[in-house]
Structures are given as C-alpha cells and as structure tokens.
Amino acid sequence: MHHLNIDRWFVDKAKQIRDGRLNAYNKLDARKTALVVVDMQNYFVANGMPACAPQARTIVPNINRLAQATRMAGGTVIWVQTEALSADPQDWANRKEATSASGWAKRQSLLSKCGDGFPIYSTCAVLPEDKIAIKYRYSAFIPYPSELDGMLRELGIDTLLVTGVATSTCCESTARDAAMWGYRTVMVADGNADQTDALHNHTLGKFLVTFGDVQSTDDLVAKLGCE
C-alpha cells in the first residue's frame, strides 16, 4: 500500500481555508452515500497487464471493507468499468493519435467487454445488490449525462467515496468532475492506488485543497457507523 505523505503545504492550506479543520466533510448520511470503485479491472490490476499498477492489489481489502460498511449502513456500492472498444473508428481520435498503434489496438482488445482486461479483479467482493456503471473516458462523468450520473441522481446520492486505480488518472478525473457537478466528494487515501507514491500523494493533496476531501478507510467506516 502507498505510504501516505501529503505535502505539508496542502495540509496547511486545507486548514487555512476551513478555519483550522482539515476535512471538508465530517458527517455522512449513508442513505445518500455511494462508494464508487473505479477501474478495479484486470487491465489495471492484474500482473502482466499493460496498465497494471501493482499497488492496486494491496487496496482490495480496504475497498471490500468499505463496500461492506457502505452496504450495511444503507448506502450504495457502484463498480465502474472502462470499456474501450467502439464501433466508431474515430471515437477518441485525439487519444488514438497520441498512442502507438500497437498500444491502442491492445487496449481496445483487452478492454472490450469480452477482453481479458475487462472483468473486475477476482478478489474484489462484488455482490448482486451492487451497481455496475460503464465508462468510456478517464472520467465516469464523460460524456455527460453519463450512466454513472444518471444512476446517482435516481438513487438520490449526494456524497461519493471514490476508490480505485489510478489515483492520478481515472479516479482523479471522476472525482474532480463529481465535485464540479455538486457532489460531496471524498477520495479514500488508502483506497486508491497509482504507479508511485509521489503521484498518489500529490493527487490527494491537490484534491484535498481544491476539490473535496481526503479521508482514510478507518475514518469513513467510523462515519458510516458500522464498526
């Protein structure tokens, strides 16, 4: 698991803008809270896959624990999966242009719904009552209105606990957009994973100051009142 070491500047700045308190959100209404698990798929988690972040495997127990606490408290668990294959050859053409042909072809194949990279990693405890949302860009809110946002609005959700991989890419993109659309958004410090500690910590620090909140699994389980 990543060594949490958010730069002191971020910590001091967060306290400055919140009259001395670190966290933006001190209470959770579980019925209006969703745990959003981003891209915990083979493509990003399994050893040997092109976009594997090895630390992602270490956060699975925290995600499972927080998922169970969310369910028990009356909240919602949503697993977000990236699907890459599109019938339109021009779909996301700018990203395709910036990627090698072989790399793009591999991504399209592995992240198609029948690809080996698409399934959620085997040790993630997905239950029948959980929701699944498919995304096609780094952020689960693009294109808007997205499958995820529609699901959240229908369920009356106003608070998101964001976990998954990678902290600085799809998790951050989803969490930033959530904050911009008015959701109380918390990135889970020990429930996100990236390629390096530096990427992970910088992302969390910036999010804490500018977009929402950063809290640990222990903090959030306590706020949900399940332990």
What can you tell me about this protein's structure?
With 227 residues, the protein is of the alpha/beta class. It has a single domain, classed as Rossmann fold (3-Layer(aba) Sandwich), CATH 3.40.50.850. Helices cover 38% and strands 17% of the residues. It has nine helices and six strands, in the order H-E-H-H-E-H-H-E-H-E-H-E-H-E-H. It has a six-stranded parallel β-sheet with strand order 3-2-1-4-5-6, with helices on both faces. Strand 5, helix 8 and strand 6 (213-215) form a beta-alpha-beta unit. Helix 1 packs parallel to helix 8 (197-210). The two termini are 22 Å apart.
Short description:
With 227 residues, this protein is of the alpha/beta class. The protein is 38% helix and 17% strand. β5 (184-193), α8 (197-210) and β6 (213-215) form a beta-alpha-beta unit.
Quote the beta fraction.
Answer: 15-25%
Gyration radius (Cα, Å) is: 17 Å
Tally of helical segments: 9
Summed up, the domain count is 1
Total beta-strand segments: 6
Secondary-structure element string: HEHHEHHEHEHEHEH
CATH architecture: 3-Layer(aba) Sandwich
Report the helical percentage. 25-40%
CATH topology: Rossmann fold
Distance between the termini: 22 Å
Strand order of the largest sheet: 3-2-1-4-5-6
What is the global morphology?
Answer: globular
Under the CATH scheme, which class? Answer: Alpha Beta
Task: Specify the structural class.
Answer: alpha/beta
Whole-number average pLDDT?
96
CATH superfamily annotation:
Isochorismatase-like
Q: Extract low-pLDDT stretches.
A: none
